[in-house]
Amino acid sequence: MPEQNFWKKEIKLTRAFLAVALVVAFVFSGLASGVFLNYVFPYLTSIPVLRLINPRLPVVVNKTEQVILNDNVNTRALYERLKAVTVAVASYPQGTDPLSRAYSAPRVSQGIVVTSDGLIFTTKSAVGSEKNTLYAVTSAGTAYPAKLLAFDPNSSLAVLKIDATSMPVLSFLSSGELSVGDKLVAVGGSFSSYDQPAAVTWVSRLPSMITDYSRVLFSESVSEELSVAPALSGELVGSGLVNQDGKLVGLLTNEGILPGEYLQDSLHAYLRQQNLVRVALGVHYLKITGSMAPILKLPATAGVLLVSSGSSPAVASGSAAAIAGLKAGDFIVKIDGQAIDAKNTLESSLDKKQPGDVLHLEFYRAGQPQTADITLKAIY
């Protein structure tokens, strides 16, 4: 009997020992795994030799480490540069006497100074009626009476003038120099002594990109606009946008963002004509890309195809295009000897023209090459 009790006691001791040993082993293995994954493994992944042996070896970032992303863009500096050329625009519909029974609060928006002598680009919505009393207030707090000089017949752009000198300006940048993902800064105007409102966004689509291949365009409307994400607030309509180099790449309107090249062409047109007079071609068209051309059995890889839009004909009656003999189905491939592509578009070519200029077109009709010289008419 004593011998039997001894073996029972030994068995009980062995089971207890095994239980303790398992608990200790479990705790130790957990600690060892944590140390290996958090300290040893990340170190091993940083050794070049091991990376060569197994290039798929992942890089592990310790969860307690702080990861800082730096895009090397000084947003504050961009804000200050754009702020200096941004003005608040106040449009008073019934005069500026607050004691007058007819007085009503002004519409407040913003604009950007584009010449050192006080030429300002803003929007038609900021101005309102041509009879309204206008003021522009700089970021320094100086209020100037403003005069409406012109409305753009093709877009929401409006041109104002204040009696000022030595105003700061920014240079324009074409959207062709931008890339999707580029960071942009917009700044609004303000009547207060506080900092002006601002927003940061990124380029999501360039004017040259086609996202709706079935969209019929009109030669006298702006369709090549810049898109950003996130979208800018309506409170910033009239604001300029700058890229990381502090160059002006767009102006926000109610319809979209007019790109830098459109603004630059508009400024040159106004300085040349002392008005915003555009040219009219009078056609509806589809933009054709290299992937679309073979599907539509067209004889070239890129161009514009003249098509109708609902009840509107491809070529407007009495237009410059109609007088030159253009017809529905004509496939225009060159403008003034330059092939139509993402940068040399019909719209951008017309933006550079003046009334009376001749537009030389090369196109295909029923598969046969044709040419036409079109004298452009004015549109106000």
Which structural traits does this protein have?
Pdz3 Domain; 380 residues; seven-stranded antiparallel beta sheet; alpha+beta; Thrombin, subunit H
What does this protein structure show overall?
There is one protein chain. The chain is an alpha+beta fold and 380 residues long. The protein has three domains: 52 residues; 203 residues, Thrombin, subunit H (Beta Barrel), CATH 2.40.10; 102 residues, Pdz3 Domain, CATH 2.30.42.10. Helices cover 24% and strands 28% of the residues. It is built from eight helices and 21 strands. The strands form four sheets. Strands 9, 15, 16, 17, 18, 19 and 20 form a seven-stranded antiparallel beta sheet that branches. It has a six-stranded antiparallel beta barrel with strand order 1-2-3-6-5-4. A six-stranded antiparallel beta sheet has the order 10-8-7-11-12-13.
In short:
This protein has 380 residues and is of the alpha+beta class. Helix content is 24%, strand content 28%. The longest helix has 44 residues, at 2-45.
Largest sheet: 7 strands, antiparallel
CATH architecture of the largest domain: Beta Barrel
Helical proportion, percent range: 10-25%
Helix count, per DSSP?
A: 8
Q: Would you give the CATH topology of the largest domain? A: Thrombin, subunit H
Strand content: 25-35%
Number of domains: 3
Low-confidence parts lasting 5 or more residues at pLDDT below 50? Answer: none
The number of E-state strands comes to: 21
Mean pLDDT: 85
* Distance linking N and C termini: 120 Å
**What is the top-level CATH class of the largest domain?**
Mainly Beta
